[in-house]
Amino acid sequence: MKLLTRGDTVTERPRDRAALLRLISLLLQYPDAELLAARDGLGRAAAALPDSHPGQALRRFLEWFRDQSPMPLARHYVETFDLRRRSSLYLTYYLHGDTRRRGMALLTLKQRYRVAGLTPPEGELPDYLPVVCEFAALAGPAAGEAPLRQHRKGLELIHAALREAGSPYALVLDALCAVLPGLSAAERAAVADLALAGPPAEEVGLAPFGPPPHEPLREPPHARAPLHAREVRP
């Protein structure tokens, strides 16, 4: 699933890092028929990655991913990412909660994509983690990975929630977090505080980490069409 359209102004970046982020973007997307049909190509792409910790984590994930039947895999994805706020893939929620600041953050992120010469996807919020990872792959480590660094606390919360739930998707977040700068002691304390208190609240007094209020739930696999055409390159 290609979520962003590349323009001529995007600069080149190290191939291995971009390939890793692109693969993470694909693996975190809903496992519809199109993605499942590309599993062999995804496996080849993972095998081509350097023998580093992130590459090893993705190869381990794909061993599980390639063996799953479509319906149980789709059910696991929905239960993991759509029905649990603690592992929601919409990053601005962790930083801004259900406040007006979140709307501004979404607009700023969409403008960042356009400035980089990329067309934001239709039908998906710009803070959806697969979109953010694809932007990082296309735009390079400096500007491209800035949103990932900005939402580092949210990524750590997702990672921790996936580990606690025993989800194999924790391996994908393991790979992603390993690519980014490590957390300082102060940042780790802030992550712990956020995990206890939950994100900010404003107009709507939601309990921390209840069901997601804005993000659309995935429809059952037989009723949901792919959002975009995918490109998988071995």
UniProtKB/TrEMBL annotation:
Q: Which GO terms describe its biological process?
A: chaperone-mediated protein complex assembly; nitrate assimilation
Coiled coil segments of this chain:
none
Query: A Gene Ontology molecular-function term?
Result: unfolded protein binding
Please list the residue ranges that the record marks as compositionally biased, kind Basic and acidic residues. 215-234
| InterPro entries the record matches | DMSO/NO3_reduct_chaperone, NO3_reductase_chaperone_NarJ, TorD-like_sf
Pfam families attached here?
Answer: Nitrate_red_del (PF02613)
Name the domain of life.
Bacteria
Q: Where is this region: Disordered?
A: 205-234
- List the PANTHER family hit by this protein, alphabetically: NITRATE REDUCTASE MOLYBDENUM COFACTOR ASSEMBLY CHAPERONE (PTHR43680), NITRATE REDUCTASE MOLYBDENUM COFACTOR ASSEMBLY CHAPERONE NARJ (PTHR43680:SF2)
- What name does this protein carry? Nitrate reductase molybdenum cofactor assembly chaperone
Name of the encoding gene: narJ
